[in-house]
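Possible regression after last week's pipeline update?

I re-ran a chain I had predicted before the update to compare outputs. Posting the input and the new output here so someone can diff against the archived version. Not blocking, just want to make sure nothing changed silently.
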Amino acid sequence: MERLSAEEGSTIELDQVLLVSGDDGIRVGEPTVEGAKVVAEVLGENKQKKIIVFKYKPKVRYRRKKGHRQIHTKLAIKEIVC
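New output (post-update):
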């Protein structure tokens, strides 16, 4: 998941749930499912693979090369409440 402002080891609640599946069937939200939430524990942060951004214009010797690594938060899902 994209970077969240949460401490490592803390629990967070995600309340914008798009789809819930259970014993009673599948519920699809319009745009989100009412009353559903996901409880997750924050395991830490890591960086993804580097993306190379290269800009080039022909005939004018214009070349720019940059790299970017997005920071993501790693989560462990503990509970899904419908």
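Follow-up from reviewer: compared with the archived run. The CA atoms of residues 9 and 42 lie 5 Å apart. Marking as no regression found.
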